[in-house]
Amino acid sequence: MKFRYQARNKGGELQVGFVDAPDRGTATNILTSHGLYILSMVSGEEAHWYDSIVTFFRRVKTTDLMIFTRQFSTLLGAKVPLGDALKNLHRQTNNKVLQEVVFELYSDIDAGLALSQALERQKGVFSDFYINMVRSAEVTGRVEEVMGFLADYLEKEVHLVSRVRNALIYPIVVIVLFIGVAFLLLAVVLPQIEPIFKESNVAIPLFTRILLATGVFLKQWWIFVVLFVGLLLALLFNYLGTKEGRAVADDVRMRLPFFRKLFERLYVARFAESLSVLIKGGVPIVQSIEIAGHTIDNVLYQEVLHEVAEEVRRGELLSRALEKQEHFFPPLVGQMVGVGETTGRLDELLDRISRFYSSQVDDVVSNLVELIQPALILGIGVLSGLLFASILLPLYNLVQTF
């Protein structure tokens, strides 16, 4: 197999290339034996159309991964040997896919691989950030502390996602019901009463005529409409899975007026928290910035942080490099990082930045939860009123003729 990698040598220079190896673990061993610090590694082989389907059914929920990481951290904190900890977790894990993954982790470690190398072979479950954090902890001897941080990190992510999901459940149910009722009215009810309007020569409003034409079309061609929408969604999701598609989606996400503040604060908090832990772990600043960039699920921020890392490698202060990216990082971030650089407490200031912006994310999410339900219900109410008015007005005109 061929793997494409990004790595840095001992001098901090970025290297990109391909390595041939029978599996990911062997490829990792080859690169590390040459003194390279791996930033990312992906399969260089052509993907098959069914890979996404297989990945979907073999996915591990973030909640299950968070529980696994918390239990793992607790066992390591109790000084349980690594192999014994994984054996215990294998017996306790309820998720069958994760249970199989834990068994493979134990087998790889028993065969002599490091924990980060074993995690590297399970990239469908563990993210690049997760793997790189464990790899840095192995270098500094702080695996227990980093596993605790990863458990806290996943717990915050699960909490944030669950709050937004719970806020959206009721509006989504209402929207689905509205779409179902609207489809029945357009495809079943309106085509039945259209002849009555034509025979009575009743004046039909423009909006009603549009709905009548739509209903006739759906009644005759609904199967093709469903197939077309399904194909369109499949093409859209396939495009969003490409690098270009992710970049376009991330750019659109950052242009939305209300959500831009939410994502910006979320990304800044995630970056500051990750960078703080990496610096505490003794990882060089340039590599820490690169790794922290992988914690942000946004291509634009990853590219910006890559530029920041290159500037720092050339001798620029991190605070000044961040201040140049004012479109992505608020001025406060650069100022506080500058204070940390001056006082020699950069990790502490980054931790404060993370807490500050995390609290702001909580405030924005709370406002979002309070506003999204009434806004959606109001919109659906207006659409429902227009839909029923388009039917009732012609009926009222018809009654007036008698």
Automatic annotation (TrEMBL):
The keyword Glycoprotein does not apply. Its main location: membrane. Keywords: Cell inner membrane, Cell membrane, Membrane, Transmembrane, Transmembrane helix. Residues 68-191, 271-394 form the Type II secretion system protein GspF domain. It is found in: Cell inner membrane. Pfam families: T2SSF. The chain crosses the membrane at residues 168-190, 221-240, 375-396. The keyword Repeat does not apply. It is a multi-pass membrane protein. It comes from the Bacteria. GO terms for cellular component: plasma membrane. Belongs to the GSP F family. This is Type II secretion system protein GspF domain-containing protein.
